[in-house]
Amino acid sequence: MTPKQRVLAALQHEEADRVPTGEFATDYSVIDQALGRRSYWRGKRRYYEALWDGRRDEVVDTMKRDIVDFTLALDIDMVPVNLVPHKDYPFRKPKQIDDDTWEDERGNILKYSYETEDIGLHKSGDKPVSDTGFELPPEVDESEFELVRYVVEKLGDTHFVFCRPGRFGGLGYISGWSEEMFVEMAEDPEGVGERYLAGAESLRAMIEPFADAGIDGAAIGADYGYNSGPFVSPQAFAKVYAPAMKRQCEIVHEVNLPCLFHSCGNNRLILDQMVDAGMDAYQSIQPIERIHEIKQLYGDRLTLWGGVSSDTLCRGTPEEMRHQTLFTLKHCAPGGGLILGASHSIMVKTPLANYRSMLDTLRQRGDYPINIPEAIPEPAWAGG
Predict the structure, then answer these.
(1) 331: which residues sit within 8 A by CB, 6+ positions away?
(2) Euclidean distance between the first and final Cα of the chain, in Å?
(3) Which of 363, 203, 356, 381 is nearest to 285 (CA)?
(4) Chain segment 155-172, per-residue pLDDT in tens
(5) 3-state DSSP assignment of residue 221
(6) Which CATH number is 3-89+140-365 given?
(7) Where are the domains of the chain?
(8) Calpha distance 65→267 (Å, rounded)
(9) What is the tens place of the pLDDT at every residue in 239-272?
């Protein structure tokens, strides 16, 4: 079977020749290790500094090459695509204050995190911004589709190509949820829910160009909780989030694509509503959610995408990776409906040896029919 056929079988709850594998996101460091060269794919600080230096074309060209070469080198079944910066986007380089601090034209203070390697918002500014003379056109420009066209041409016949919709509009500062947002949800859940539902309609304009380009699935999503549980009660979720999520899933299906839904946090208390909303696959399954129990509860309606802790991938050992992979294969693969991958993503601190151990174990023991007769105790899951 081809990689694409494996993934489509998993989405249809059928057993293929083996369990497919893929990742919602893979940070540059693992690609560096695998290919032996410097990548800008999810390049974090190096990505933005290159754009600030006016090297947009170099960044895009290396991303196109690297995601294809990485997918083939590690024999991965799924490959993500996204829009790239518009060819005329005016990248304004912020003023560098020290090695890890910048101030942009708005007066925002930006800080670099050594833990995640992201550049995030440290302090908001309030300076007026001068006119750049450039606005993103309402319709996606062909230059923004360079990566999508390239990957579909190179891998579209054989691999499952899925999109992560959204346009580049500058540095996405990490600011988190605000107290004011939760107060508003508590005071007016119906009103907030109506706004979310109205906003869901914008997904169609983002997703249709990808569907027209020949991709195979759409990975959308929203974060609904922490490791300790959802942001809001199940009753509030039904009013605030569920209608918009249902409408988003409908829009993806209306353009004839499966809906792959990414959502961080421990969502067990609201998972029934998420399944009812119509997602085809659930990704970012935190270890605390116990993926094997989700299989028992929803395995006939939901494809599970994950099964190996992102935290253990970063901080564990190859033997721990083998154990977690075997456990997930044994308990979640029979009958189909499993895409093996990280519980969230392949993060920047992940040693290639750990990721290879997961993939090698899949190659050795992931053929259908699944035959893992030995007892595999539930792993001592660590973190996410």
Answers:
(1) 291, 292, 295, 376
(2) 32
(3) 381
(4) 999 999 999 998 886 665
(5) strand
(6) 3.20.20.210
(7) 3-89+140-365, 93-131
(8) 36
(9) 999 999 999 999 999 999 999 999 999 999 999 9
